[in-house]
Design a protein that fits this description.
There is one protein chain. By secondary structure, this protein is of the alpha/beta class. It is built from 17 helices and 16 strands. A five-stranded mixed β-sheet has the order 10-7-11-6-12. Strands 3-15-4 form a three-stranded antiparallel β-sheet. The longest helix is centred in the N-terminal third of the chain and has 22 residues. The chain is globular, with a radius of gyration of 23 Å. The N and C termini lie far apart (51 Å).
Amino acid sequence: MTFSKKLTAAVTALAAVLSSAVSCSGDKKVGQADPTAETTTLTEKGTSGSSKKAAPSEDMNITWLSDFDLNPVNGSGRSTALALFEDVYGGKINYINAQYKDRFDVLDSKLAAGEGIDMFPYDTDVFPQGVLSERFDPLDPYYDDMGMSDGLWDEMSDVIRSFEYKGQHYVVPYALSEPFLLTYSRKLMQSEGIDDPYTLYKAGSWNWDTFMQIVDKFRANQPDAPRYGINGWFGEAALCSAGAAVVTYDGTSFANNINDPKLEKAENFMHDIAAKGLYDKTWKGNFPTDLNTLFYAMNDWALAESNRLNPEADLMVVPFPKAPDADKYYGSCKFNARMLVKGSTKGAAVATYIKCERLAATDGKIRAAAKDAAIAQGITAEQFDAIQEYLSPVNITPFFDYSYGMGEKMYSAGNYNYETRGVINNINSVLLDGGPVDSWEALRGAMSGIIDGEINNYN
């Protein structure tokens, strides 16, 4: 038996255990298995026909610095990726805790002291800022360890290329998650005589124009009622749907792209929604129960609670509509990745762990187990399947903009003051929420100089 076949067998066996575990317990987290059951099912690396776990390997012993532990916490089971890494490769993850706000300071102090840190979580602050700060190494030398030529990463190839910097790849997303969605009630749509947005999406006709037609009709059906077209957080998704980045990169230098006509169209689209009084900016943590709002915009974390609070509404989800002249759908989501820390001697081990994450994200039986767990937590099977469809880069192109990773002057999500928050936060929200400027021309003029100044720091 070849090692690739044994690894496939190991994943299959683990998936069977995971499926059993999550179907028996509704409170297990998606992707976590029974830690006592799975250890007997994985095939040892290099031992044909053996059911023993691989012996611990110092070469596969890596140190992870983060604000969260990849090892089981408070009685939780091992993740699928960790089980593969430990049982098939003899790996081990040593955890060093750092508070989120202090994580870069802690990393810098460890690096300065010569302490071996191997792996670090990816988030928007990491790239390009962290890479240009000499905190990370490229993963390209370890592509063989990641199985990059085995077909495992084919679906993610364009996503990986979007993170290229000077011909190398510091960020290699193994999966996508937390897509921005629009939740709506099919029952409400039917009662109002409105086309089903999911049907429009499947027909390739779900765009800004059809969105406005729908919300305008909803308002017109009861013009004297307090009706809204949309509530929630969607400025980022609206901007991404245009398919144009605020900051571009040509392989050599960064450039300010704020004058792109596609961005102007997205901003004017948001301005029109607000100007017509179609946007309810009141914070809500779920799809509104009063049925006076047609769409609720949020990541998928709010869907189970929305279902629970609206049991008769027949809720469904769609991606944010595309620009009418766009060649495809562009979506906003989270990129799941791990970074190789500068100077680590465990590059092959980090790459192997990332491969385990990719295996866990793509195996069919493990996905089926995740679906069972999601249903147990309150997501319908139809909703789960739709979300997986939207998370496939084949269907929705995940949009990446370098500006999100260029520091607080460009992106500071926790700051809600126009004068002090990041450029991207203002571009995403000012024309929706209202502020000191009330047109794209004025906002663009106020932000462009800041963008130029920050780009100069990187170029």
